[in-house]
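new request in #modeling-help
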Amino acid sequence: MPDIKFHSFLSTFFLGSSRLDCYSDPLGWKDGFSLETSNVASSCKNVKDVHKLLSTIIELGQGLVGQGKVRFSAAIDSVSEMVRHASVSSVSGLLSNLRSHDQVSSIFWLLHSDLHEDRVTAAFEYLSTMVASVEPLNQFGNGQRSNMNTFPLLEQSFAKGKFHVRFKRRNGRVRVACEEVRVEQSDVNFTSVSSDNGMINEGLIPKVQFNLQLSEKERLDRASVVLPFEHQGNGKPIQIYDGRRSLTNTKDEMTSVSTGKSETNDSSKGEIIYFRDSEDEMPDSDEDPDYDLDI
Amino acid sequence: MEDNGGAPSNLLDDAVGALAGRFVAVEDSVETSAAFVLHHLLKRALSPLSPTVVLFVSFAHPFSHYDRILRKLGCNLAAQRDNKRFFFFDMLMWEYQGERIRDEEKTRGDGLVALYGEIQKLISDLPEERKNSVTIMIDDVSLMEVAAKGSTNLVLDFLHYCHTLTSELGCSLVALNHGDIYSSTERPTLILQMEYLAGILIKAEPLATGLAKDVHGQLTVLNRGDGQGSRYKLCNFHFKVKENNVEYFFPGSRS
């Protein structure tokens, strides 16, 4: 997972210019032990009480913007921490409630997907209108955690990553975008995905003695092959060698081929009417060959 | 400012840099132990030129074990303990008494909450000039989890609270964990959480080529930078553990 920290609040809610500190003493362990009190105006000493947390956030937000029409945004760093202390359903509940509050304009939260089961990540994704995810540029094929054998890739992965965004529009359509993100000293830069990631391909294609891919020439040759039932007959019936007779057939042995245009043929003979229904698929393509099966 | 106590710096010290206010997570495995890293950082913290006070929380070995090892490295732990520069928390016999969900008050008296309380109190009782240079060391987190009867959350809470000491008081925190214990777990939460929390990650692994006589393993140090200008740094080098010291060197650079 690339090390990209946009902010380093660590479990605080950042409300415009207001902050709810859930980092310093989330469980009240420091109560009763003498320590310099922090200057933060608001702090939470019991993150397990999600109801209280929700009302505190709203109170703080309203304190910032007043009771009128002005709205506030809330940012949460991080939901992964919240879910350690409270159930997924109560945290989802907090997010839903915040979301539906009149004065909340938007919420954004951080979740570390590698810390949770897929269903937990999915639950939070369902709640959101936009999901932005950051992944390493180089995915290790067998899902193993990186180790020193992949050191050169590891070095690269700490400053760069792939940034995927999926938004759900109001009209129901989903838009997906992908960029490369690079973390500089004090800046984060986004660029379109470079195509020279030969390293990615190297990792995914097994190294064998034969060639698993088509060369350019092979690709062109393949494209120029005319398929048997797609001869352009120029309006005339085509002769097809059916394998049983010599090529000098008598006329009544001929099979005529139609390319979809209507032709006046001898209707007592068999006809092959061929409509190509889908584009040529590469072998081993991931597409389900039965996807358009209509039973 | 070089805070390795004036000793000639080595690859490990260069990679780690200044420890103040940082959380160092050290990961190792059965094949390649990183205990020497803990010993090295301990010796560095207790050097005569550094004002650091060390709070050592041990779930793994008794005081005598560390005393013996550090003596070979040229450091007298017993004397440091008498001088109030080294505080040893012997947690070998500690056992978590169980969660009391209802009564918050009672849980304060036991367990990791109490341990944290002791640490915090000890730090606040230190003389002013020592308060800001405290190093807390934990050996090791997986045994802490065992002692807490498998309560990962409690261990993470404890680490979190120790982390607040690094950001509020400038303490440094060093914790050891064993990566291979979690290798069969689908989601090794504890290790991952530690990696998220750590500003410096030191990983000890065997060589890709297997066992060797002259090289005992490789160390990778990821230093995320202190957020004040210094960028992350990633270093990888080999090491050999000897009787009285450890040698660090880049692959192929030894004659």
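bot summary: The first strand of chain B starts at residue 23 and ends at 28.
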